[in-house]
Automatic annotation (TrEMBL):
Name of the protein in its database record: Serine/threonine-protein kinase
InterPro entries cross-referenced by the UniProt entry: Kinase-like_dom_sf, Prot_kinase_dom
Domain Protein kinase per the UniProt entry, residue ranges: 22-306
Enzyme Commission numbers on file: 2.7.11.1
Pfam families xref list: Pkinase
Source organism of the structure: Polyangium sorediatum
Keywords noted in UniProt: ATP-binding, Kinase, Nucleotide-binding, Transferase
GO molecular function: protein serine/threonine kinase activity
Length: 649
């Protein structure tokens, strides 16, 4: 009967609430809740799409009135958004007569292309490349954020409700359907979908539906994109009540269990897979209060992991696209207004001025086919050591030479380098890797309290070594203290995201930074959170004179962290870039701070904020190291380009 009804609708005319008539043409989509037809309208002069809801969803005139109310609310909500990228615009609504009674219809813009469900099916049970997943889900995250900020909830996010289209030569994702704003689970327009819909929409946990429901669905869709299988796929022959019980009480989906179908760039990165699983598991928690508080919080936790997976390697690849920004969704969102009111900023009179172009000298050329992960200046500026995909490199007298790592050290497991006071080079990374490499090539293994950790940063001084990172088995930052005298100690901070940077101030305080805006004072006794707006990730921190430290991170974030009697206080400073900043350093002579990051960004801190310093135009790669030593500034890029300039030249 549905097939006959569907066919009978072609050629019918819908009279919209705005008085516009739409003639239903070609069927372009079909789902459990209805059909989508391409339509023409003489008044609009453009092709539109009309979704006609199935008669089984309409329970008399009450349902039609409720639908009209919802459609009006939705139209006003979407029209109020200054930024609607990623959302299919709703144009009109109405009802159409059929052999089975009046059926509600929603008119939206027509978007040629295919939906995400078909894209997933075309991959034959395998996941999409991480770069494409990151792009598509970034658009979806931005669209949901805009919807939530305006007071709406989608409630029915699934692959078939995400349209993939080409706009201005670029692939984009648009959310369609759903957009439920006031309907509760006791009176739903659509029946529940056990594959993607949050448990509070049905069953014993039925309750109010908020943005957390979209967080759940978003994570379920992301999981399917990465492995090709639905996160909560029913088992063959499984009854619906049993499937519902398994969804509410069973294990959360884990990419680590379906490694064979993951994209190639994730199969050999168990650290990234484990981190993704932690975020997906939290986002798909049965209880909404245990999920991420917003779609923005979830995406800020996921995006760096996907970006790390698509970083170019020696075997090829391309630079990841810029991450989706939430900042322009509204001129000033409610969250942004609250944060702006809470964070002190420099007065207008202290606005920084543009820096003149310095004269740069090339210290070393780019290394063909290589992408460096870390670098440091050694021998008081006479040489540079760097970590790449093929081993350790050394730059002396204008040329790079490869220095293979000692036996037993897998370059793929090394995450970073640090110089020890003894002159040794500290190597650290995956599976608790920690070793000191002597200038003559000898290797000294350093025993840690635990091995199932990933070390991401280190700080070494005359007091000892502080290492930070995350546990591989469960979420939370980890810090390990290796004093020169005494036994090592470990601090586990389960309430924080992973630590990405660490320093120790002149007053002896350890400070660690990390994803989701983590900024904490740390010691062997515990961790203390340093409040700030937490509007982005923090990737690096460096200590300056007087106990002050500077932290930098995603989107050009820069913080000044100062000691007080009640603990450290952070101040967000103005910055002349919106690119990610990944490294920061302080000149020990002048106390001046410098930062570097994506797209060859180099910034110097002045009293009015951080000003951008022009780099040699030949350098376009991301910068990973800045080494300020008056009167010289040295920078190293990911492609191996190394340059320096002198003050006053």
């Amino acid at each position: 009967m549905d097939a006959e009804l569907r066919q009978s609708l072609i050629g019918q005319v819908l009279s919209g609430a705005q008085g516009v008539r739409y003639e239903l043409g070609e069927l372009v989509g079909e789902g459990r809740s209805g059909w989508v037809f391409k339509t023409t309208s003489e008044v609009l002069g453009a092709t539109t799409a009309v979704k006609v809801y199935r008669p089984g969803l309409v329970d008399g005139g009450t349902a039609l009135l409720r639908f009209a109310r919802e459609a009006n609310v939705l139209s006003r909500l979407l029209a109020s958004l200054p930024e609607r990228r990623g959302l299919a615009h709703v144009i009109d609504h109405g009802t159409i007569e059929s052999p089975r009674g009046a059926l509600p219809c929603l008119v939206r813009e027509y978007l040629p292309g295919q939906n995400l469900a078909r894209v997933i099916a075309a991959h034959g049970g395998f996941g999409l490349p991480a770069a494409r997943t990151r792009r598509v889900m970034g658009h979806v995250a931005r669209a949901l954020f805009a919807l939530h900020e305006a007071g709406g909830v989608h409630r029915d996010l699934k692959p078939s409700h995400v349209l993939i289209a080409q706009e201005r030569g670029q692939e984009t994702a648009r959310i369609t359907d759903g957009f439920v704003t006031t309907l509760g689970p006791q009176d739903p327009l659509d029946p529940p979908n056990l594959l993607y819909e949050a448990p509070e929409s049905f069953g014993q946990l039925a309750g109010p539906i908020g943005p957390e429901a979209d967080v759940y669905s978003f994570a379920a869709v992301l999981y399917e994109l990465l492995c090709g299988t639905a996160a909560f796929a029913p088992k063959p022959g499984e009854a619906k009540p049993k499937a519902l019980l398994r969804l509410m009480t069973g294990d959360r989906p884990q990419l680590g269990r379906v490694r064979a179908t993951l994209p190639a760039e994730l199969r050999d990165r168990p650290d990234l897979v484990a981190a993704l699983d932690r975020e997906i598991g939290r986002a798909t928690s049965t209880n909404p209060i245990h999920r991420h508080g917003s779609i923005r919080e979830l995406w800020l936790a996921l995006e760096p992991l996907l970006r790390e997976a698509v970083r170019p390697t020696a075997s090829g690849g391309s630079t990841p696209e810029e991450p989706v920004s939430f900042d322009s969704v509204f001129p000033r969102s409610s969250e942004g207004a609250r944060l702006a009111a809470a964070m002190p900023v420099p007065p207008p009179s202290a606005a920084p001025v543009a820096a003149p172009m310095p004269v740069w000298e090339l210290l070393g050329p780019a290394i063909a086919g290589e992408r460096l992960r870390a670098a440091m200046v050694v021998e008081e500026g006479r040489a540079i050591m760097a970590l790449g995909t093929r081993g350790l490199y050394r730059l002396v007298h204008g040329a790079w030479s490869l220095a293979p790592l000692p036996a037993g050290i897998d370059v793929r497991a090394v995450r970073g380098l640090s110089r020890l006071p003894s002159g040794e080079v500290l190597l650290f990374g995956d599976a608790g890797l920690c070793a000191a490499l002597s200038p003559r090539g000898g290797l000294r293994r350093i025993t840690l309290p635990e091995r199932e950790i990933t070390l991401l940063a280190a700080h070494a001084d005359e007091r000892g070594i502080v290492l930070v990172g995350e546990r591989a088995s469960r979420p939370g930052g980890v810090a390990i203290f290796l004093p020169n005298e005494g036994a090592p100690t470990m601090l586990a901070a389960p309430d924080t995201a992973r630590f990405a940077g660490v320093t120790r101030t002149s007053s002896g305080h350890g400070i660690a930074v990390g994803t989701q805006g983590t900024l904490v004072e740390i010691s062997e006794r515990g961790a203390r959170d340093v409040p700030w707006g937490r509007t982005g990730h923090l990737y690096a921190i460096a200590a300056g004179p007087g106990g002050v430290a500077y932290a930098v991170g995603s989107g050009g974030h820069a913080l000044r962290v100062e000691p007080t009697h009640g603990g450290a206080v952070a101040t967000l400073e103005s910055v002349q870039t919106t690119r990610d900043l990944v490294s920061v350093a302080v000149d020990p002579t002048t106390g001046g701070a410098w930062a570097v990051g994506a797209d060859a960004r180099l910034l110097e801190r002045q009293e009015g904020g951080w000003i951008r310093v022009p780099l040699d135009p030949s350098v376009t790669s991301a910068l990973l190291l800045v080494w300020p030593r008056t009167p010289r500034i040295t920078v190293v890029a990911e492609d191996g380009s190394a340059l320096c300039c002198y003050a006053g030249r």
